[in-house]
Write a structure and sequence with these properties.
By secondary structure, this protein is α+β, with helices and mostly antiparallel strands. It has one domain: YggU-like (Conserved Hypothetical Protein Mth637, Chain: A, 2-Layer Sandwich). The chain has 1 helix and 5 strands. Strands 2-3-1-5-4 form a 5-stranded mixed sheet, covered by helices on one side.
Length: 78
């Protein structure tokens, strides 16, 4: 999947499913990229896995702008 198509400016909206078998992009829901995350949503582990995954995928710096405790998150990719 071409992730660059879904990055608007430097913003990417995602919807996360934690505790998956592996971290991967599973599809699209409107303007959100659906992501399975192979980490538990405790002690910030799922958020750390998301940042690591998108950093490796885009080869750019990634931060979570909003949604730290939500399944719907907004990422800043610079």
């Amino acid at each position: 999947m071409e992730i660059d198509k879904f990055i608007r400016g430097n913003i990417l909206h995602i919807k996360v499913k934690p505790k998956a078998r592996e971290t991967k992009i599973t599809g699209i829901d409107g303007d959100k990229v659906l992501v399975d995350v192979a980490a538990v949503p405790e002690k910030n582990k799922a958020n750390q896995e998301i940042v690591k995954f998108f950093k490796k995928l885009t080869k750019k710096e990634v931060k979570i702008k909003s949604g730290l405790t939500s399944r719907e998150k907004t990422l800043i990719i610079t």
